Amino acid sequence: MPSNSPTLWVVATPLGNLGDISDRARKVLAKADVILAEDTRRTGKLLAGLDIKGNGFISLHDHNEERRIATVLEFFDEGGSAALVSDAGTPLMSDPGYRLVKACREHGVNIVPVPGPCAPIVALSACGLPPYPFVFLGFMPRKEGQMTKLFEAHGATGATIVFFERKSRLRETLALAYKVLGNREFAVCRELTKDYEEFITGSLAESDEVSAELKGEITVVIGPPVLSGPASEEDILRLIEKELPSGDKPKVIARRIADSVEGWTAKAVYEKVTERKTNS
Prior knowledge:
280 residues, alpha/beta, 10 helices, 39% helix
């Protein structure tokens, strides 16, 4: 529930299934003095579907966020409280709001997250690819050169890569990913939590088999590099050297490596990790 001091609530809303709204989010959206929305008409429909009567809306999107900040801060100075939402999911994840949250923190406004649906996390939880470590790239840039640089930079970390892509560019982007990253497993996660939810999995080498007629919102997950065939001890030692700077516990490192190779259990990798740490 909103506190008595000026507060900005950062509220996650359903990706598609209205049943995913939390009781806490309902209460905050009903009580907030105003709702800052990327698209006020779309958010109005969402609240109507949830049987929530909001107390008013202010639009806040990429093209007016900077100008809106002063207005919103004045609103907080007068003692008001506001809820920030995106069109769907968790605000700021490829949506406007970061600059507002930063300005509110610097202004002394209380910032309270109300967590809930988040497309990258939903995709990772159900696609069957290693969920961590991962990097989220938001919407991919339109220029091939910029996409190539992103894939090169983040592909080199060995992390799972998650991003949003427009349906019209999906096959082109997967083809570029194969060119830059080599053959990796991928999942195209479409219409998450909606009636036509679909997970299309495969390898980037065969990504041209993905239909060019897909519709709806798309989240793409590309897994880490996977060695072909049973990994050698030399491969495992090389991966351990790469993982040790993370500072994670040996069990965590061992599990991560075992998940990325064939022919090794987490226990066997753990023994190599502890042996390496003992001899260092």
